[in-house]
TrEMBL record, chain A:
Keyword Cell wall biogenesis/degradation applies: yes
Domain Mur ligase central: 68-269
Name the record gives this protein: Lipid II isoglutaminyl synthase (glutamine-hydrolyzing) subunit MurT
Binding residues for Zn(2+): C204, C207, C220, C223
Active site: D341
Organism: Streptomyces boluensis
UniProt enzyme class: ligase
Catalytic reactions on record: beta-D-GlcNAc-(1->4)-Mur2Ac(oyl-L-Ala-gamma-D-Glu-L-Lys-D-Ala-D-Ala)-di-trans,octa-cis-undecaprenyl diphosphate + L-glutamine + ATP + H2O = beta-D-GlcNAc-(1->4)-Mur2Ac(oyl-L-Ala-D-isoglutaminyl-L-Lys-D-Ala-D-Ala)-di-trans,octa-cis-undecaprenyl diphosphate + L-glutamate + ADP + phosphate + H(+); beta-D-GlcNAc-(1->4)-Mur2Ac(oyl-L-Ala-gamma-D-Glu-L-Lys-D-Ala-D-Ala)-di-trans,octa-cis-undecaprenyl diphosphate + ATP = beta-D-GlcNAc-(1->4)-Mur2Ac(oyl-L-Ala-gamma-D-O-P-Glu-L-Lys-D-Ala-D-Ala)-di-trans,octa-cis-undecaprenyl diphosphate + ADP; beta-D-GlcNAc-(1->4)-Mur2Ac(oyl-L-Ala-gamma-D-O-P-Glu-L-Lys-D-Ala-D-Ala)-di-trans,octa-cis-undecaprenyl diphosphate + NH4(+) = beta-D-GlcNAc-(1->4)-Mur2Ac(oyl-L-Ala-D-isoglutaminyl-L-Lys-D-Ala-D-Ala)-di-trans,octa-cis-undecaprenyl diphosphate + phosphate + H(+)
The Lipid II isoglutaminyl synthase (glutamine-hydrolyzing) subunit MurT C-terminal domain, residue ranges: 307-405
Pathway: Cell wall biogenesis; peptidoglycan biosynthesis
Gene Ontology terms: biological process: cell wall organization; peptidoglycan biosynthetic process; regulation of cell shape
Lineage: Bacteria, Bacillati, Actinomycetota, Actinomycetes, Kitasatosporales
From TrEMBL, chain B:
Binding locations of substrate: R129
Residue span(s) of domain CobB/CobQ-like glutamine amidotransferase: 8-202
Organism, as annotated: Streptomyces boluensis
Protein name listed in UniProt: Lipid II isoglutaminyl synthase (glutamine-hydrolyzing) subunit GatD
UniProt-listed InterPro entries: Class_I_gatase-like (IPR029062), CobQ_GATase1 (IPR033949), GATase_3 (IPR011698), Lipid_II_synth_GatD (IPR043702)
Function: The lipid II isoglutaminyl synthase complex catalyzes the formation of alpha-D-isoglutamine in the cell wall lipid II stem peptide. The GatD subunit catalyzes the hydrolysis of glutamine to glutamate and ammonia. The resulting ammonia molecule is channeled to the active site of MurT.
GO molecular function list: carbon-nitrogen ligase activity on lipid II; glutaminase activity
GO biological process: cell wall organization; cobalamin biosynthetic process; peptidoglycan biosynthetic process; regulation of cell shape
Pathway stated in the Swiss-Prot or TrEMBL entry: Cell wall biogenesis; peptidoglycan biosynthesis
Assembly: Forms a heterodimer with MurT.
Keywords of this entry: Cell shape, Cell wall biogenesis/degradation, Glutamine amidotransferase, Hydrolase, Ligase, Peptidoglycan synthesis
Length: 415, 242
């Protein structure tokens, strides 16, 4: 990164030009009806000034958030919490690769804090570019295996990338892959945030031994790699801070996973001097995150929109939906952004939906139909969300969809 | 087979269950249940001995290091070879397929001995990974309809004289040798690169495993409506440019 003598203005003329050009392209993209324009704007800006990301972050206290699941929501919760201590800039819409991050930061010249969601594959690079004060690591599990690196290799990349970082790492002590990734860093705050999905960490990331997982604990029987003692603990509806005080978590967002996200966010906020009570109360305001968890009216029915992109995400989602006989609509696509392989459907335990009337839609509804048939469940295959909603028995409908299927769903129901 | 119960062994899910291949176990179990069979399913972790009394053994795909660990532990255990000597049926996918051969290239770039249950030898391809939908014709003596699946691997598997190719690909890479072969089999041991999972995409292969285990020529019909619809869609998708 270029030196900044005098320090009066953090942006060089070249960087300023890049920001302006990026904004102009983004505006043109918006005007052409091609989405928010944040990614294309950032791409143009980064091309004009490859160091722009680092320069934009220079005057900010930055926290990075990465994980397989919960990145966008946790980024939002942390942004709310840090808002108590100063203005925040954040890539709130989930554009989490360098171009999208650059674009988001370019819009926040007055901010004190940068709260940045980062795609798992880009974490090490972004951490190098923006010199963060803190990095929150939530979980790692299988996702988009047709194009992503292997899950354990990703943990290994995190580990190498974070080894030299001066940031405080706030990491989930209950995910062995996250612990493996974080423990190369000298400065880690461990949060017992829990993790329901265990099938990517039966094999010790350090030595390959078989992991033993009695109760909430875990350790490798062969090399001594084990769960670190956490200083923050999610316990039911409370988070225990390092002093042993229990703070209630009363989010509007549903589910255990969001309590875990809030516990981690409280630990991050404390790292920036925002006390847990203040941080948590600000998180209570969040109702929905980029459409997720939103309840919308469609064809005179209430639909709750839930995003689940991979086996771990589906597992957490099944645990938060209303009990039977609440109807459930499932929608799965396999476009580029979803991963084009649908094999992961077989790692999801759909028997958890027994008793729910089930309606199946999406590009890959036939893959789902075979999956549900083999699970011994009753279901209806429908051509559209309209048809599914019209066939569904009374009551609020839970609509669970993977990435592009979720976007399709939002568009159709007018969210 | 004993009484009316089928012993289904799923080998090392802690190491080799990354690509949804547990679906193969679910499909075999479901289709056996639908024929009135009771299924005893054993999921054997890699720190447990493999039972020798199974009727059908399934092994899935996995990442490179777990593949090496699985090969080491299966060699040390020795029971899978004993089971095959007793006539057990083995159906293996991807990393599991390579392990059943004479050797493969492990995560350290070294030649790792396999179990030698299939007359195949695997190396690692130089080019890009083989990723995508596959369409093929299953070896004629097996009398099965077209093969559909999804491949995601970098392996190149050469067949020795006593292994037959399981299929020939029309679309996709299969064994990666450039000769169009996909997978391998001999007697009761089968290997394929196909995920999907392959038995969900090709329920007739699951039925073939059941027929071999039961030593019968035919099984009662079951309702294959959704499998047929999925097969038709995937075969059409594979033959149409994206």
């Amino acid at each position: 990164m270029a030196a900044n003598p005098g320090g009066a203005d953090p942006l060089t003329p070249r960087a300023k030009l890049a920001v302006t050009a990026g904004k102009a392209v983004a505006a043109a993209s918006r005007a052409a009806g091609r989405g928010s324009g944040s990614v294309i704007g950032g791409r143009v800006a980064l091309k004009l000034d490859p160091d722009l990301l680092g320069r934009l972050a220079q005057h900010l206290d930055v926290v990075l958030v990465s994980a397989t699941n919960g990145k966008t929501t946790t980024t939002r919760l942390i942004a709310e919490a840090l808002g108590a201590a100063g203005p925040v800039v954040s890539n709130a819409l989930g554009a989490n690769m360098p171009a999208g991050i650059t674009s988001a930061l370019a819009g926040g010249s007055d901010a004190k804090f940068g709260v940045i969601e980062v795609d798992e594959k880009y974490l090490a690079g972004v951490a190098r570019d923006v010199t963060p004060k803190a990095i929150a690591l939530l979980n790692l599990s299988r996702d988009q295996l047709d194009r992503a690196a292997e899950t354990r290799m990703l943990a290994e990349k995190w580990r190498e990338g974070l080894a030299g970082s001066k940031a405080t790492i706030i990491a989930n002590a209950d995910d062995p892959l996250v612990v493996w990734a974080a423990s190369s860093s000298p400065n880690v705050v461990w949060v017992a945030a829990g993790q329901e999905w265990k099938d990517d960490a039966w094999s010790c990331p350090s030595c390959g031994g078989v992991m033993q997982r009695p109760g909430d604990d875990w350790f490798c029987g062969e090399c001594g790699f084990r769960r670190p003692a956490p200083s923050w603990v999610l316990s039911g509806d409370h988070v225990l801070d390092p002093h042993g005080s229990a703070w209630p978590i009363q989010l509007q967002l549903p589910g255990r996973a969001n309590k875990a996200n809030a516990a981690t966010s409280a630990a991050v906020a404390a790292n920036f001097g925002v006390p847990p009570q203040v941080a948590l109360e600000r998180m209570y305001k969040v109702q929905a995150v980029a459409g997720r968890y939103d309840v919308v009216q469609f064809l005179e029915r209430d639909l709750r929109l839930l995003l689940a992109k991979n086996p771990a995400g589906w597992l957490e989602t099944f645990s938060l939906i209303d009990p039977p006989p609440t109807p459930v609509i499932l929608s799965v696509n396999a476009r580029g952004a979803d991963g084009t392989d649908t094999s992961w459907l077989w790692d999801v335990d759909y028997t958890r939906l027994a008793g729910h009337p089930i309606f199946v839609i999406g590009d890959r509804k036939l893959d789902l139909a075979v999956r549900l048939e083999v699970a011994g469940l009753d279901f209806r295959v429908c051509d559209s969300v309209d048809e599914a909603v019209q066939l569904a028995p009374p009551g609020r409908i839970e609509a669970i969809a993977n990435y592009t299927a979720f976007q399709d769903l939002r568009r159709r129901v007018g969210n | 087979m004993s009484d009316n119960s089928l012993r289904l062994v799923w080998v090392y899910p802690d190491l080799l269950s990354t690509y949804g291949d547990q679906g193969n176990a679910l499909v075999v179990e479901r289709r056996a249940n639908q024929r009135g069979l009771h299924v005893e399913r054993h999921d054997v972790r890699s720190d447990q001995p493999v039972p020798t009394s199974g009727d059908i053994y399934l092994i899935g795909g996995g990442e490179d290091r777990p593949q090496r660990l699985a090969a080491e532990r299966l060699r040390r255990d020795g029971n899978l070879s004993r089971a095959v000597a007793n006539g057990a049926i083995v159906f293996s996918v991807c990393a599991g397929y390579q392990i059943l051969g004479h050797e493969f290239i492990n995560d350290l770039g070294q030649r790792e001995p396999g179990l030698g249950l299939l007359d195949v030898t695997s190396t690692r391809g130089e080019g890009e990974r083989c990723v995508g939908d596959v369409l093929g014709d299953i070896d004629e003596p097996l009398g099965l309809p077209q093969l559909t699946g999804f491949e995601n691997h970098q392996g190149v598997t050469h067949l020795g004289p006593t292994a037959r190719p399981f299929a020939r690909v029309r679309l996709g890479k299969g064994n990666g040798t450039g000769d169009g072969t996909e997978g391998a089999y001999n007697d009761t041991v089968f290997g394929t690169y196909m995920h999907g999972p392959v038995l969900a995409r090709n329920p007739q292969i699951a039925d073939m495993l059941l027929r071999l285990a039961l030593d019968v020529n035919a099984l009662p019909q079951v309702d294959d409506r959704w499998y047929d619809a999925l097969r038709e869609e995937r075969i059409a998708a594979a033959t149409q440019p994206a």
